[in-house]
């Protein structure tokens, strides 16, 4: 009888190509089984079991692969992992966790430190998730009723939007959830590798876009120089990565960049913004970046997107990405990023400085609106942190810190205090909640 049940389960798993996983109630646990733990540059075949506490939620077949994810992670002590999922028949397996879009891969972010200890990086493991949720709350909060992260037409712009017409929880960013990762070669009990954050993929469908829709433009700069926003020629080079459409036309985003360049050299004016920008998106991005101290968000970890773009028309939005260097984790400061002394984030960009000067009154008004609403408050940030840390077992946190270390900027108290001090300093620039 047991053999018949096993055969039936194998057949069911072999035929499955889409696997919904309910949001975990307890600690989410991954158990990977393979011949050897992968090293940088190699993938290993593994099987993967996903558990909610002691309850088995799902599994991926033995042709699933596991490898180190990310260039920065390759040089860190604790490395990111990426699983490319296959069912028991070896076919691609799409996984949907909670309300996240389906993906055939899983990325586990490690938030490890550099081996030489040269930089204090995030070891709280919730910084990125907390900052992204804060941005989403900013985008959804408005006194005029415009409470969507994206403009209304994003929900009716193509196949992705049609299939998700009721997807009120569309992220337009990434979300994360804690995972305890265990490894075994099959001959020993599973070994605890660490506590990680499963981060949702940053694919076009997270933005209600489809890559075969030519006006669905989604692109990200890659460690670009400060003049990124005035150099349309960079769009055909190494500094921009197109995520959508499949056959990108650089002349489409060039229209926006050329307008920025013309503003900076006096040939154009910000008064023409209704032809180019979803202005609330850009103002909210400015306010958010200043609030969390996101220095890496102007010419690297920023997403530029449009659902209506052509070479002659269309409005552009901006979105957040990769936010572990926020909330007091600032490159080069090694744990000493004073909330006031670091000044304004956008001062490092000529374009964003010009934007901030022209729209100063609107930016200050938006800041005060969000302060009055309680979105930009220490109490709200603490509530968000509590939400993401809730399913982290204290024992797993301690075991991860024992294995991989921690630092002074990674306590919840440090993050909350830094944010409250940063908000008070920005109140002095823009006026407080009252």
Summarize this structure as a short list of keywords or feature phrases.
434 residues; alpha+beta; four-stranded antiparallel beta sheet
Can I get a quick summary?
The chain is of the alpha+beta class and 434 residues long.
Oligomerization state of this entry?
single chain
Number of beta-strand segments: 13
> How many H/I helices?
11
Helix content: 25-40%
Order of helices and strands: HEEEEHEEEHHEEEEHHEEHHHHH
Going by helix content, strand content and strand pairing, the class is: alpha+beta
Give the rounded overall mean pLDDT: 90
Q: What is the terminal separation in angstroms? A: 71 Å
- Shape by Cα distribution: globular
Task: Report the portion of residues in β strands.
Answer: 15-25%
Stretches where pLDDT is under 50 for at least 5 consecutive residues are 4-12
**Rg over CA atoms:** 22 Å
The number of domains? 2
What's the main sheet like?
7 strands, mixed, barrel
Biggest sheet: strand arrangement: 2-3-4-5-7-9-8
């Amino acid at each position: 009888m047991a053999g018949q049940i096993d055969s039936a389960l194998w057949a069911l798993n072999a035929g499955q190509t889409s696997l919904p996983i309910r949001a975990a109630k307890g600690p989410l646990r991954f158990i990977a089984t393979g011949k050897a733990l992968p090293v940088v540059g190699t993938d290993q075949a593994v099987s993967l079991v996903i558990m909610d506490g002691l309850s088995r939620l799902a599994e991926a077949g033995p042709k699933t692969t596991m490898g180190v994810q990310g260039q920065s992670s390759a040089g860190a002590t604790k490395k990111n992992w990426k699983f490319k999922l296959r069912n028991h028949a070896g076919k691609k397996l799409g996984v949907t966790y909670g309300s996240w879009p389906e993906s055939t891969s899983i990325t586990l972010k490690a938030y490890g430190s550099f081996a030489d200890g040269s930089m204090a990086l995030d070891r709280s493991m919730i910084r990125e998730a907390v900052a992204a949720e804060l941005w989403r709350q900013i985008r959804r909060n408005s006194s005029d009723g415009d409470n969507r992260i994206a403009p209304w037409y994003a929900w009716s712009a193509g196949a992705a939007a049609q299939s998700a017409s009721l997807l009120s929880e569309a992220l337009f960013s990434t979300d994360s959830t804690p995972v305890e990762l265990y490894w075994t070669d099959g001959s020993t009990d599973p070994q605890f590798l660490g506590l990680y954050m499963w981060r949702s993929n940053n694919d076009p469908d997270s933005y209600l876009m489809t890559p075969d829709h030519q006006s669905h433009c989604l692109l990200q700069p890659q460690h670009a120089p400060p003049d990124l926003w005035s150099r349309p020629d960079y769009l055909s080079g190494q500094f921009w990565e197109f995520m959508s459409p499949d056959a990108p036309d650089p002349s489409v985003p060039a229209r926006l960049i050329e307008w920025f360049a013309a503003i900076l050299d006096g040939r154009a004016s910000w008064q023409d913004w209704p032809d180019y920008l979803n202005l609330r998106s850009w103002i909210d991005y400015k306010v958010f970046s200043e609030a969390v101290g996101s220095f890496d968000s102007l010419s690297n970890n920023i997403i530029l997107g449009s659902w209506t773009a052509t070479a002659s028309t269309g409005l552009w939005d901006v979105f957040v990405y990769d936010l572990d260097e926020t909330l007091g984790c600032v490159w080069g400061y090694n744990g000493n990023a004073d909330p006031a002394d670091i000044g304004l984030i956008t001062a490092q960009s000529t374009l964003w400085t010009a934007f901030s000067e022209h729209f100063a009154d609107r930016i200050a008004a938006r800041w005060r609106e969000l302060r009055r609403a309680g979105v930009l408050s220490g109490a709200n940030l603490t509530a968000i942190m509590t939400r993401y840390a809730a399913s982290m077992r204290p024992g797993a946190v301690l075991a991860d810190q024992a294995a991989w270390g921690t630092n002074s900027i990674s306590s919840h108290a440090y993050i909350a205090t830094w944010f409250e001090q940063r908000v008070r300093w920005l109140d002095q620039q823009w006026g407080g909640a009252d």
